[in-house]
Amino acid sequence: MPDKPLIAITGASSGIGEAVARAFSRAGHPLLLIARRLDRLEALGLPNALLKKADVRDRAALAAAVGEAEARFGPVDMMFANAGIARLGDIARQAPEEWDEMIDINTKGAMNSVHAVLSGMIGRKHGTLVMMSSIAGRKVYPDHTVYCGTKFFVHAVSESLREYLAPHDVRVIVVSPRHYRYGSAGSCEGRDDARQLQGEQSGDRRRHFRRRRRRSHPRRLSAAAASDRPGNRHHADPTEILTQRSRRRRDGRPERRME
Ligand SMILES: NC(=O)c1ccc[n+]([C@@H]2O[C@H](COP(=O)([O-])OP(=O)(O)OC[C@H]3O[C@@H](n4cnc5c(N)ncnc54)[C@H](OP(=O)(O)O)[C@@H]3O)[C@@H](O)[C@H]2O)c1
Asked: Which of the listed residues 10, 38, 51, 85 should we mutate to test ligand 1's pocket, taking the one with most ligand atoms within 8 A of CB?
């Protein structure tokens, strides 16, 4: 059995979840990988990984998956509540069924992922919850109406969880990327931005976004989550890594201007 602790990741079958799964696997951690597309999880071919076909809307299935993984690898050290979808569009024309799907997966699914590990972490006085939000959880966009709502929800519950869990020595980290090249067709946030970056923007702006993407690379996020540095406990927030600009605003420093 690997000597490193168990990492659970929802939405590990593609995109950011897949990249984070690979990063933790390279670092020698056993994994619990959850998604609906089992074939995609199997195709990753990662060692010491329990692969579970489950929908994050199914609270009982998540709890069962965590139970099975813990029996095999020991307690979950980190839950990355990453599974999510973005159905963007004009709110007046968007089918309400798309709202339902986003709300159920992005908000209730995230809470179900937390629920599956919460009492264990509190009991052990140890663990990390990594909550996948988005820049759309801090800032609104007109064609992201419900998606923004779901990601603001993730921010709000994470802030509350952080306060609640600090005395229990359980960390809460919120990740808030902007557009990311890992996004698939189902999670299309920022595809237009990405196209713009490739085609229309100046070299300086491209370099700026390239730097931002490097800062929010899954390797850096996983390193931040795995770190036990005292300063990183309870109040660690990789969004700080992502959004230097908001840190400047918070500290009342002038914004750095891009040329
Ligand atoms: N890409 C970006 O630019 C960006 C920016 C900010 C935030 N985010 C957030 O990052 C997260 C990952 O997005 P991504 O870009 O990596 O997208 P992605 O490639 O589409 O991955 C989404 C993952 O979530 C899983 N998933 C979706 N619905 C699920 C459900 N009901 N039950 C279980 N798993 C489910 C998918 O697996 P299955 O389909 O196999 O179930 C897939 O593994 C999302 O929460 C997204 O909102 C993305």
From this structure: 85
Query: So which residues are the catalytic ones?
Result: 147
pTM of structure: 0.78
What is the distance between the alpha carbons of residues 181 and 30, in angstroms, rounded to a whole number? 26
Reference 226, options 75, 82, 24; nearest CA is 24
Query: For position 2, what pLDDT does the model report?
Result: 77
Q: Which CATH architecture has domain 6-189+218-240?
A: 3-Layer(aba) Sandwich (3.40)
**What are the extents of the domains in the chain?**
6-189+218-240
Low-confidence ranges of the chain (pLDDT < 70): 181-250, 253-259
How many residues can be counted in the chain? 259
43 CB burial (10 A radius; 0-12, 13-18, 19+)? exposed
- Quick one: what percent of the chain has pLDDT higher than 70? 69
Pocket of ligand 1 (CB under 6 A): 10-17, 35-37, 40, 55-57, 82-86, 105, 109, 132, 134, 177, 179-180, 182-184, 186-187, 189-190
Q: Which residue has the CA at smallest separation from atom 31 of ligand 1?
A: 55
